[in-house]
């Protein structure tokens, strides 16, 4: 039986190729993802370990980089901290470090020299150390205010030379003491005096090095502040021992980390991004695996059906049913091992391509070798072989049940079984799935609704897979009803061929159904999201123009000052975001919140929200605060309720009262439950806080188009911000959604490709199965063109059938997801009919293309040999 299995596999190797390709693609996606993400993880682990100090002392804070960017704050500690720790036992050296990530540096054309892939521009002070990620390769180190050194990769990409003038736009708020550093556009002029080359992996960031005192003034806003102290442990002193000594000396308010802890925290931060890539890609690999199961299942099902007489003879000469089943599963194992091996090799190629891609967007991994952990091949072979064996199990069971009497039959075609049991099971699953989807759409809890949606998706998907053969019998005759009139006898035959084996047709269409269902569901969600956000913009944006940074960070107050001076400007309203380090609002119930913003009077006109009670015009005025309806309910507040505003920086507490209660905002738009504090009072207490958004309206009698052009000219010298009207915001949202959608479509394309391979494989094996039939058709006068047409029409109707079923599923999933998210702001349901129509048309084209090779092979058969085939 072992020899028979190998001979059978080799004799059908041509028929196995497409199934092997499906395994190859799935395994390549899995192994390539693992190799690529393991490589990045290892590279950054090594980078952080090599550049971290033995012990680092910094400010203790729970704020993340996004919170800091929005408030315009930077974490810092007093410069005096260096003196407090440098002479401690166990300290060999203590270096003051200044480092700021939210820095913008522009050239003489006012264009940022920073990376375009989302990585930051980091401003740091220069000091020599064996931990430095760079070494000076030309020019000299920064020695005076205004002198900077730029990393070589940035200098090469942005054509920066020594002697060039650059301007820094710092992220920190400026005070009167250091305002002279700024020019009229809120920039700090600098001159490039050196170029430094990376000695480690370039993480994709732009590095700008400054002299220490200049870095303190320009990046932290004070000569008395630094970002951290980096300590070298003395010989014989462990990092943990030194950490304990430093903690005892400094006390609360400081975060002290060892080299290992600092490296781990840095790795964890970037690991979140890497994990997102990893699991997203593995998710789509899972979809590809699922689609591949249908292809492999169909292949073995047809091979078993075509070998009925052969298997009957094996049973007749003594082979047991168990031996026959093992024989088929052995063939599946061979297919899985070969496909997995090829997929693993292809995974290396995919990882190399991903590495080159990420290098192209700025993360230089040229010196990093690919990491091949033991888990990668184990996972690859488990995925490839287990999936193949699982897919082949049912055909193997059918093979084991072939009777020895099958060897005596004239035809090897299997007897078609009733679909009654399948219909009952499918309908039960469908009913359960529909109930779960309805429950998800109407659930009060997001978690409950999400769970029901997931259950409904799984149940309805399985239901349609089970009902596929039943639907094929009823839907395909309707889809191909016009075939006989349009294409004559070949049209009628193609329709009958598609219905001849409904189980095969259903399994073939199911592979395409999955990909189309996902595309349809995501299209509904994306279209609904776009229209919902557009509606929210119309409902909430009351200003003619909104000025905001491109990366969600605070920006220089100089910008709003210049806007106020622009000709044709009427009302200007500033909004500033506050952090938990800045303020706490205490309510009469004893509870408090640190989620707050401050806005100038007029906020209620430029940001429209329904007023529950109070005077909207009081928002932002001295002694008044604005709150959301949710905040009012949570703390039993009404208009006039007293509150205390504690400004932590000055230690002062200011009394105020609720001036207005506004309706809750839709999630994703505005500032949610943030308390709106009086602008003048907050600015006096926190003068360093920068603007986060600036709203501007045109003055009465001013042409709106001319006003918009004037604002554009005003903000043009400031590359960190952009002025947008409502149409611009809608366009921005559309582009962001489309970018995400196109990425998902591209990844789902892998599933579609495998589905196409399934159609090709089914048709190819079907042609082999019908060799004698096609030979007889040619003998009685059918032309090669007619044979090709028959195969193409059969393929098209199967593809369109799969696409339509997928559309029904996908639209249902998308509608339920929209209803589930309606309370979160996704309150507009949009069915993307152009996409739906396009999918059906593309499905027909896919079917046509998939039939090209099988149709060509069928038309080129030798008539006499075909007729003689058993």
If you had to describe this structure to a student in words, what would you say it looks like?
There is one protein chain. Helix content is 56%, strand content 15%. It is built from 26 helices and 26 strands. It is globular, with a radius of gyration of 34 Å.
Oligomeric state of the chains?
Answer: single chain
Number of strands: 26
Kindly, what is the distance between the CA atoms of the first and last residues, rounded to a whole number of angstroms?
Answer: 23 Å
Mean pLDDT: 85
* Sheet of most strands: 8 strands, mixed
Category by helix and strand content: alpha+beta
Anisotropy-based shape: globular
Task: Please report which band the strand proportion falls in: under 5%, 5-15%, 15-25%, 25-35%, 35-45% or over 45%.
Answer: 15-25%
Task: Record the SSE blueprint.
Layout (H helix, E strand, L loop, with lengths): L1 H10 L1 H39 L3 E5 L5 H7 L5 E2 L1 H6 L5 E7 L1 E2 L3 E3 L14 E5 L8 E6 L7 E5 H6 L7 E5 L18 E11 L7 E5 L1 H9 L4 E2 L1 E6 L5 H12 L3 E5 H48 L1 H9 L4 H40 L14 H26 L19 H23 L3 H34 L3 H18 L1 H39 L4 E5 L8 H7 L4 E10 L4 E4 L5 E2 L2 E4 L3 H4 L4 E4 L9 E5 H7 L6 E6 L4 E11 L12 E4 H7 L7 E6 L5 H12 L5 E4 L1 H44 L1 H9 L4 H37 L12 H18 L1 H8 L3 H6 L2
Parallel strand pairs: 6-11, 8-10, 19-24, 21-23
Antiparallel strand pairs: 1-13, 1-14, 2-12, 3-13, 4-6, 5-9, 7-10, 8-11, 9-10, 15-25, 15-26, 16-19, 16-25, 17-18, 17-22, 20-23, 22-23
Helix pairs in contact: 1-10, 2-8, 2-10, 2-11, 2-21, 8-11, 8-15, 8-21, 10-11, 12-13, 12-23, 13-14, 13-15, 13-23, 14-23, 15-21, 15-23, 21-23, 21-25, 23-24, 23-25
